[in-house]
């Protein structure tokens, strides 16, 4: 299990993806996102997660270049937005994202949401980008088990990642189990439930005291010990560093089970089955 910030999960195609990354959802284009990316990379992070719809790919690219960290050391994820899904439109959207980021390739390209009637054609486009070497890995985001079961029989390349809302109130045990069986790496967005309620929960504050950590660090460690890649978002350099300070301790099996017990299947984001695409 991960013991340093540079430790990586190995995807099904052998590509290494850091266990911890910086998410930049709702981080403003311009100085804010550029400084967040720089702070993360200077703090040892080697994974940055953005998306076309976030509107900050250009700032992410500037932050990468300003950091001085070599391109081949950084794992960059972006995603095709719902309005651009379909075969040709996805290929075009990929070029736009690549140009905005100022990169020659993407480490991980994801379908942002499972748009019914479109995600299979979109996946064919991702397969082409992968086979052409323009994306080192490809995957999906916000796919339930039934979406994956629908996609896999027609896919030439199996998704390497499924990025979903995942935190102690939404532990998704069935999806986690299915992804492990299929060799698909589960990844958590909103791992801290956007700061709502969890950070003040008595179980987590008690465990924070026990381990000499913060409740946020307890949650992020719980993710990683479940084999889930995690990408907490922050724009505060001190919080970015704090979120990374999770590799010098290990939660006991008993404490992991206690945190598992917080699951209520409750979301802070949309349910992929009821999303207004």
Automatic annotation (TrEMBL):
InterPro entries: AKR, AKR5G, Aldo/ket_reductase_CS, NAD(P)_OxRdtase_dom_sf, NADP_OxRdtase_dom. The keyword Oxidoreductase applies. Residues 20-263 form the NADP-dependent oxidoreductase domain. PROSITE patterns: ALDOKETO_REDUCTASE_1, ALDOKETO_REDUCTASE_2, ALDOKETO_REDUCTASE_3. Keywords: NADP, Oxidoreductase. Belongs to the aldo/keto reductase family. This is Aldo/keto reductase. It comes from Paenibacillus hodogayensis.
């Amino acid at each position: 299990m991960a013991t340093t910030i540079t430790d990586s999960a190995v995807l099904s195609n052998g590509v290494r993806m850091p266990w911890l990354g910086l998410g930049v959802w709702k981080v403003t284009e311009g100085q804010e996102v550029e400084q967040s990316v720089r702070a993360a990379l200077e703090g040892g992070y080697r994974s940055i997660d953005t998306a076309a719809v976030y509107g900050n790919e250009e700032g992410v690219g500037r932050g990468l270049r300003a950091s001085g960290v070599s391109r081949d050391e950084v794992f960059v994820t972006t995603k095709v937005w719902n309005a651009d899904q379909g075969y040709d439109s996805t290929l075009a959207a990929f070029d736009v994202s690549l140009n905005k980021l100022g990169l020659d390739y993407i480490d991980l390209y994801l379908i942002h949401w499972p748009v019914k009637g479109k995600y299979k054609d979109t996946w064919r486009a991702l397969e082409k980008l992968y086979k052409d070497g323009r994306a080192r890995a490809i995957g999906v985001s916000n796919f339930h088990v039934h979406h994956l079961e629908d996609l896999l029989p027609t896919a030439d390349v199996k998704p390497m990642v499924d990025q979903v809302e995942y935190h102690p109130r939404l532990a998704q045990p069935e999806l986690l189990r299915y992804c492990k069986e299929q060799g698909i790496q589960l990844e958590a967005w909103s791992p801290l439930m956007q700061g709502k309620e969890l950070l003040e929960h008595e179980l987590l504050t008690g465990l924070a005291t026990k381990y000499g950590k913060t409740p946020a660090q307890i949650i992020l460690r719980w993710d990683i010990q479940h084999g889930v890649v995690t990408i907490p978002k922050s724009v505060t350099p001190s919080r970015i560093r704090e979120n990374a300070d999770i590799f010098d301790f290990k939660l006991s099996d008993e404490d992991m089970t206690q945190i598992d017990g917080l699951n209520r299947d409750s979301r802070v984001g949309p349910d992929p089955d009821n999303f207004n695409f």
